[in-house]
Amino acid sequence: MDWITFLNVMIEDEKAAMNKYRLALERADTEPLKAALERLMHEEEFHVDFLEGEILKLQAA
C-alpha cells in the first residue's frame, strides 16, 4: 500500500469517528457531555484536514 492510499484510509477512519461523535452528540443529555463530544468531533475534523494536507505534500513531491 502506498502512503497516499494509507492516508486516505486514515481519513475515512477519522470521518467515521466524526460520525460516531455526531450521533453521540445528538443523544447526549448534559451540557458537559455535549461539549466534550463536540470538542472530540472537532479534533477529528482537524485530523482530516491535516491528513489531506499531507496528501497534497506527497502529490507535490
Provide structural commentary.
The longest helix is centred in the last third of the chain and has 30 residues, at 31-60. This protein has helices spanning 3-27, 31-60. It has a single domain (3-60), classed as Single alpha-helices involved in coiled-coils or other helix-helix interfaces. The chain is built from 2 helices and no strands. The chain is mainly alpha-helical. Helix 1 packs antiparallel against helix 2. It starts with a helix and ends with a helix.
CATH class: Mainly Alpha
Decide which structural class fits the backbone: mainly alpha
Number of domains: 1
Contiguous uncertain segments of 5+ residues: none
Using only C-alpha atoms, the radius of gyration works out to: 14 Å
The helix/strand order is HH
Query: What is the 3D form?
Result: elongated
What is the CATH topology assignment? Single alpha-helices involved in coiled-coils or other helix-helix interfaces
Q: What is the CA-CA span between the terminal residues?
A: 18 Å
CATH architecture: Up-down Bundle
How much helical structure, as a percent, in the residues? over 70%
Q: How would a crystallographer describe the biggest sheet?
A: none
Number of strands: 0
- Total helical segments: 2
Beta-strand content bin: under 5%
Average predicted local confidence, pLDDT: 97
